[in-house]
Amino acid sequence: MKKKFKAISTKALVLTFGIGTLASCVSDPDSPGLEFMPDMYRSPAIETYVDYGWVKETPNVDAMMTQSAKHPPVNTIPYMGKVEDLEFYLPYHRQVTSFAPITHGLQAKHGWNISEEPAGDYFKSAEDKNPIELTEENQKAIFNQGKKLFGINCAHCHGEKGNGKGPMVESGAYLGVPDFANLTELADGQMFYSIYYGKGMMGAHAPLLKNKEIWTVVHYINKLQSEDYGVGSATEGVVSDSTNVEAAEQ
Ligand code: HEC
């Protein structure tokens, strides 16, 4: 009796495995055969901008009516440059003055780093060095790029030569634009700070320029302040015609 039972159970086992194995076999070599949990074989595709109102054939109206594309979280690092420029995309560590939300519209909820101090980190920023190092080879291209950026973003207030007499000032629309010749003591880091966050009647340029571009303009302001600024034989004039500016960028 015991022996018979054993024989039956062995047969049953072989049969179960046999059927199981055969049932999971299919002629298509790319198919996994019988799927125990299909979700494990095929993960649901998550695609941006596709509404997920349908969950398991059931419409979910709430999900359908909710915006799926969200703003990136605060302090997300935008990155669309070269790998060697990655450091320029890191968040600026200096805090802006406590009154910047009122004077310059920089709100903490939008990710601006607001200080509790009225002076913010303005004076501390004097310690920051320009991360773009000038060399004999690269300086001409940097000054030309700086000149171009300055012409587009700053000259209408600061004037082509940085004397504070741009067309906006001449027209009487703006007052209090300094002559860079009077700011020779201003540290590079403070220039960056003021351009980035804005200062007085000058708006914040962080939303307009990449950090690398601001540091490039800082080099150019130094060049405006002193023709001798630069490495070695830096006294050659800055190229003024646009073809050369474009060539220098490459
Ligand atoms: C709308 C006019 C305007 C524009 C555009 C403008 N500035 Fe200014 N800028 C000012 C005014 C006004 C001040 C004086 C701010 C103060 O000291 O209250 C100033 C001050 C500065 C200072 C001195 C900051 C300091 O810490 O004392 C620098 C450097 C500077 N600007 C650079 C730039 C650069 C570079 C650009 C272009 C990217 C630019 N500015 C665009 C109006 C402007």
UniProtKB/TrEMBL annotation:
Domain Cytochrome c: 141-225
InterPro entries cross-referenced by the UniProt entry: Cyt_c-like_dom, Cyt_c-like_dom_sf
Signal peptide stretch: 1-23
MF (Gene Ontology): electron transfer activity; heme binding; metal ion binding
Domain of life: Bacteria
PROSITE patterns in UniProt: CYTC, PROKAR_LIPOPROTEIN
Keyword vocabulary terms for this entry: Heme, Iron, Metal-binding, Signal
Presence of keyword Iron: yes
Protein name per the record: Cytochrome c
Species the sequence originates in: Brumimicrobium glaciale
Lineage: Bacteria, Pseudomonadati, Bacteroidota, Flavobacteriia, Flavobacteriales
